[in-house]
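quick one before i forget lol
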Amino acid sequence: MLFRDLPRERCTRDFGVTTGILLQRGRGADYDACVAVYTSLELGEVRAIAEAYGLGIVEAAEAVAEGTVNSSFVVHLAGGARAFLRVYEEQDHGGALREARLLEHLARRGARTPRPLATRRGELVVEARGKPCAVFPFVEGAMVCQRAVTPAH
């Protein structure tokens, strides 16, 4: 079962998660979902990050309705493209950079993992609200919470 399939009261009771924010066209609107978002970002902050990565025009940023450790956002770009933005909640800049380098290393060697994007200056990790952030290509699929993972996965 996916977090988004759980009733809100179970999400709050079992997982201690909170309501997320959909940021679109310069304004925030609450949506009722089971979300682990510890650091909220304003749309302007997401746009600044996207500019550093050369992603193009940001139309919206949506808090991801799954996850337990980091704050994650789907960045909706002009023309329908998307990117995935991760705000590291438990790692400092060095830890986030080590993870990004490891993922880059694994992707180069054929592991099926998204390769982190680099900024225009070649950086894999940037800062927002004093926390490290990384951007990844958006990959279609479903998030499965740890409790729901089976041998078939």
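fyi The mean pLDDT is 79.
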